[in-house]
## 1
Amino acid sequence: MRRQLVSDVPLGAFLSGGVDSSLIVSAMGPATTFSIGFDDPSYNELSWARRVAEHLGVDHHDRIIRPSVVGLFHDLMTFLDDPIGDFSIFPTYLVSRLARERVTVVLSGDGGDELFGGYETYLADRWARAYQRLPGLVRAGMVAPIVSALRPRAAKKGKINKAKRFVEGLAHDPGLSHARWRLFGGAGARDALFTAEAKAAMKTPVERHILDLFRRAGARDPLNRSLYVDLKSYLCDNILLKVDRMSMATSLEARVPYLDRELVELAFRIPQEFKLGAGQTKTLLKRVAARHVPAECVYRPKEGFSIPIKNWLGGEFRPLLEDLLDPARLRDQGLFAPAWVERLKSEHLAGHANHSHTLWSLMVFQAWRRLWLDV
């Protein structure tokens, strides 16, 4: 940590009020911290960040994001460079811009989840093993159809939304372990989404990269194998890339103390029972954090750094959705089946299903293609 604090320019930290960033800030001493929140209360964690900041006595700054961020879309596509369908590019860019008003370097809590077991997908994989012990008739004939028929809720998570995601993940290859809950749309949905010409050009199965990483993970315990996979895929291919591009777009340097080599090596020597408990993630890290910040900030449900895009797609983002996923444009390009995309849009806008991840990924790809390929 001392190495991360060396700087000849002003240095601060991102602070969400969660375990990872709070623990980083607690080790900094006097610090300047930055947070972003939302109008939607189910997505707003500013009260937690303020609670931690007050407890630690740091110089804290925060700002509310409103749906007007739609105007940033095309700029962020330019900054992103690659078509990465991650909603959190918006808050990452905006909190970086906020920080750059006062500092040139920030510390980030990225990496803590992948080292110490912070994602709910790890719990879902455990629950799946218990769920599979139910009779097949109960699972396939009762639970799955009932849960699938429920309308998604507008709130970020909640029991109904979590139950729907759990059932959806179970439909994927069990060999993907926890990564099943990172997929949106299984083989059947992908088969319907792409045109025959596009499918004929696809030589590599979507899941191969993850399955290969699980094989390379070696003889670790099940959780540490999953952490290895996330470290080698989700963290480096999505999280770190997104943070680097969005922060550098504001001329801000973002550092990741959790990824110091010595800490990474130590984390993978820690047995899984110290990382994942009965219904609790990051067991060991939370015990450490609770010594430095209020326990209520540590032992609270994980929310994640996201935005209410599923709700915004039917509002401020609707014109952009219709423009980028225009059926005539899709038909001319020949990659995606216009009728299926229209069905996804219709179901989502009517509130019958939450297709925000798929629709957003399509929008990002279309914007990227328009920016870099269509000349």
## 2
Amino acid sequence: MPFATVRGLKIRYEVIGDDGPWMTLATGGRRPCDEFIPIAKKFAAQGFRVLLHDRRNTGASDLLLESHETEEHTWADDLHELLGQLDARPAFISGSSSGARTSMLFAIKHPQATRGLMLIRPTGGDFAAKRLPDLYYDQFIRAAQDGGMAAVCATDAYKGRIALNPEHETTLMAIDPQHFIDVMEGLRALFVAGGGLPVMGVTDEELATITAPTIIIPGNDNTHASINGRIVHERIMGSELHQLPVEDQDVPIIEWAEWAEFEDEIVEVFTGFMRRVIANE
């Protein structure tokens, strides 16, 4: 995959599809974009150009640890800049879980660049609010406190990022452990502040400003319970809701790979949505 310089950082990206309307797909958590390559190819086969990218501090993209705003806000602005460099605005903006939070914030911050909004597995509720701070921040704070940056590099998450880009180890080892802890604590505080909202990380007032055509596909685990998708649907005026043939399961998370059997339906639903939006423009 090539890299683009986005707001001073090298961001790894790939465009799948040679022509047609632009859309984006953002993965959940802090995972690299590779897991969405199979479904992106299916969208491309339907005549769309799909932008995938590793968000900063994920995958092979550059690391820059700051805590002046939530990561999702930062990622939304990075995506806006990357789309501009590719002459791809406006685009259909899509993502799953944290990618859905980023997509909603993109639509709020950059409405003129949002042709439509397609959300998969929105996050919310007490379980997610308790689980995700540890997953995203606390485990790395503990590692830095116990063993400095070498221990951070040894965590599964950062080992994966270093495997994709060995320069990450040099970057991480150059960071003062206390500075790393301070940044992680700052990001955690920002995340927790939005964790108790009905739609995690996005206020009702912000959701009410979304005017882009929107469709939501709810999830079915404790982190992405179906009720979360229905709440987003209620908060975004005029949005559509599509329920996959799944029932909620009492498990912390269902990995994206377990949803592979539903990719064809997701592609069919989203391509139909995009074509309707284009026809009505």
## 3
Amino acid sequence: MACFEGRKLVVATHNAGKLREIDDLIAPFGLEAVSAGALGLPEPEETGTTFEENALIKAEAAMRATGLPALADDSGLCVDALDGDPGVYTANWAETADGTRDFGIAMQKVEDLLQEKRKLAPDERRGRFVSVFCLALPEGSERYFRGEVEGTLVWPPRGSRGFGYDPVFMPDGHERTFGEMSAEEKHGWKPGQGTALSHRARAFRKFAQACLGVA
């Protein structure tokens, strides 16, 4: 491997939906991957103001706790008409009074703000999903891999697949939202099998090319 020795890797996430996608992406490569949640590691406070900073916080925390290479993803939805919000605060917009997350509330908040700004036409409702993977290594170095996918915010939400804001995001070149796509369509990239569609798949493809010997 170009980035680290051995086959063991910690996936530094407690997010079940994100973990499913990363597990799907990792599966073809034969890595011994275990999540921070499965190891019972605490969730570090994400105090960064960029995706890179938050990804590093999570990856470093898992790496230091286990002594193993750790891969973390920080991702979010950036809406042009909202000056890039919710951005790194994408998950925070879903927080409820009892400490849980409700992405129905988060999607409604985005829509309410777009309506307030009278952003009704598709070309006024542009945005992108961003994913940044950080690989933190025990010797103290880190690598970053960024993926983005452009699209349009639709309303009302469509589809019940995926997670987060997927039901309101329609990627360019498609007539269905991420919430209407199967896991294989959205993020099922494998070497030699087409173009990665989702932001997370695009970031992972860069990681695989740099660290897993993928051409």
## 4
Amino acid sequence: MIATPVELSDQDATCPQILILSDSKPGHLNQSLAFASLLGCRYQVRRVAFRNRLLKLVSYLFDRLRIRSSGLFKYTGDLPSARMVVSTGSETYYANRVIARTISAFSVVLMWPAGYRADFDLIIAQQHDNPPPRDNLLTLPVNLSAPVATGLVQSGPAGAPCIAIIIGGPSKHFRFDLNRLEQQLQQIFHLFPDGDFLVTTSRRTPLAVDALLEKLPFRYRLLYSQSQDNPIADFLALADVLFITEDSTSMVSEAVCWGKANVEVLPLAAAAGRNKICTMIGRLAKQGFLHQFDGNIGNCNLKFELQSVLQAEVQKRSLL
């Protein structure tokens, strides 16, 4: 089970264990929140931003020269005492270093801090980014995530295998072929004639894909273009077999870390040859965490023990 973190109000007298710095990008903030959740830590969030774009460039120089200046950035609220300052994204790394020193906390950054000195107390980066080896670096085959089912999706008929499908969309790395996707979906329905089928999409999913999904016999269908509710954590909790398109490292990461499902990745056409997502998926496939769908179903329900790996690393370094 995922430990539940405690979010504190600014007026709470209890000292947070983690101060999260946010650049207001949901994908970045969610990784920092997952870090706190996986450790079961109390936390507070402060938004940070450079005062202007030029000062971000200045921050690279100042960092190299070991000049710490809070005048380069601004943040919301006060600065509570904390054991760790945690942040994700290049807009936060300089502020992380300055604020951690100010409040005498450990500095922890998620994703490789390109352009800045890599001497934070802990860096957590993904293997597919090929970070250079360092004593203060934990490399993971996945992104940090901590999904919690909300009950948005109910269980289906007793005895029917639950088949959940998560569909993303085109990106700089992948193109979407509607005909190919339709063939893949028809293969899935054929493989599970008695299946209980669930589907959801992402903000990048083309409307033509939505139209296709509307025609198919899903018991549960949630299209992002119609509702921004997120059923993915429920899918992970319910699915016996989970199909995901290969365009998102976050979707793949959640699938191979949580739930009990056999994970099948639906291949897409790469936009410009092999990319880091392809590399990530290839490594996970070799280790048995997922199967790249080829018309048959693999037996890949091995889960990466993200929580225990992270807890062990933090304990080894005495960060809490």
